[in-house]
Amino acid sequence: MAQALLNPVPLAALGALIHPSALTGLAALAVALGKVWVDVAVFRALRPRPVTWRAAPAVLVSGSPATGWGERRWPNF
Questions:
Q1: pTM, entire model
Q2: Where are the alpha helices (H) located in 1-77, listed in sequence order?
Q3: Any residues with CB less than 8 A from the CB of 64 and at least 6 apart, and which?
Q4: What DSSP state is assigned to residue 16?
Q5: Which helix H or strand E contains 6, and what residues bound it?
Q6: Both ends of the chain: CA-CA distance in Å?
Q7: Which of 12, 13, 14, 53 could disulfide-pair with 31, CB 3.0 to 4.6 Å?
Q8: How far apart are CA 77 and CA 69, in angstroms?
């Protein structure tokens, strides 16, 4: 369960909710886009078959309670 704390997107969103402003909203968006970019880039580098950027939405839900608290199940794109 502690692995979910390693995902910076919910923490950034929480920060934006606690102190709402344009700056915190942009920071939360930057964190989410950075997380997607890094995860998809690493996934593409480690997977033998080609992966398209259509896998990007899976990054945002991976590691969330809805997917089994951090269990990585990438779709076959």
A1: 0.65
A2: 8-18, 22-46, 56-61
A3: 4, 7, 10
A4: H
A5: none
A6: 27
A7: 12
A8: 22
